[in-house]
Amino acid sequence: MRSIIDRSEEMGGACRKMSDKIRLYGFNNLTKSLSFNIFDVCYARTLREQRDYVSYIDEQYNSERLTDILVNVTEMIGANVLNIAHQDYDPQGASVTLLIAENSMVPSVQSDTIVGHLDKSHVTVHTYPEYHPENAIATFRVDIDVATCGEISPLQTLDYLIGSFDSDIITMDYRVRGFTRDVNGRKVFNDHLMSSIQNYIDAATLKRYDAVDINVYQANLYHTKMLIKEIDIQNYLFNTDAYELLPQKRLEITQNLRREMIEIFNGCNVY
Fold first, then answer.
1. Which of residues 24 and 219 earns the better pLDDT score?
2. What is the mean pLDDT of residues 17-37?
3. Which residue among the candidates 121, 153, 164, 167 is catalytic per the annotation?
4. Which of 42, 63, 122, 149 is flagged as catalytic?
5. Is the pLDDT of residue 74 over 60?
6. 126 is catalytic
7. DSSP characters for the chain?
8. Is-catalytic flag, 132?
9. Which of 122, 126, 153, 223 is flagged as catalytic?
């Protein structure tokens, strides 16, 4: 089987100009993996409110809803679902894993061979609600991994996934792994041009965030972090109305929320 891929430049290894088309030999077995964490931050004043927040999150993002989100992701990248595994955890959290395949690789008579070859084509999600009794701020983390073999790419799902959750802080990693070959036997380490993950996020979404890139082009490794710019305090209060709070208290809560976000964004205890 042969496939044609658009390409004008190769990054990593020996970088040089190439023809617009590369004719591949056999199946395109490059693995494109997109991994990212989404954090939602909430102010929950009492221990009871914190527990109620975790229960609310568990109900809103149970394994059934997460499965629906991942099935939509699979359809968006033009793939088919081969198998689904999902689990809700006690006391909190949920996980879903989908094994997927390209439309052109739907299992037929040789289904065992195909599934074995596509064992790195999958979509997974795990949720982690979190709070501490000494801190009035609760957080909800979503870990998502989309790994595909062949010509389908997970990057086109970014806007949908960001919009599916209350995304205050987002960290994303995209990596192209392995290599395939052209018909002359030359290795191909990346089959598409790319300079930043941000290129695949809608401009209206990017306007709401401060974004930072850390990319290693030679390794086909791309990293982007995003932090929400504006905090509307009412959206961060659980079972509390902002107008019930004194202005000084609203300012204090806003500052605490921003500090929590900055520390998560930087991955260290800043304050």
1. 219
2. 63
3. 121
4. 149
5. yes
6. yes
7. ---EEE-SB--SSS--B--SEEEBSS----EEEEEEEEEEEEE--SHHHHHHHHHHHHHHT-HHHHHHHHHHHHHHTTEEEEEEEEEE-SSS-EEEEEEEEEGGG---TTHHHHHHHTTT-EEEEEEEEEEETTEEEEEEEEEEEEEEESS--GGGGHHHHHHHS--SEEEEEEEEES-EEBTTS-EES-SS--S-GGGGS-HHHHTTEEEEEEEEGGGTEEEEEEEES---GGGGBSS--GGGS-HHHHHHHHHHHHHHHHHHHHTS---
8. no
9. 126
Q: Is residue 271 part of a domain?
A: no
Domain boundary among 166, 193, 220: 193
**Domain residues for 58?**
31-176+205-266
Instruction: State yes or no: is 121 an active-site residue.
Output: yes
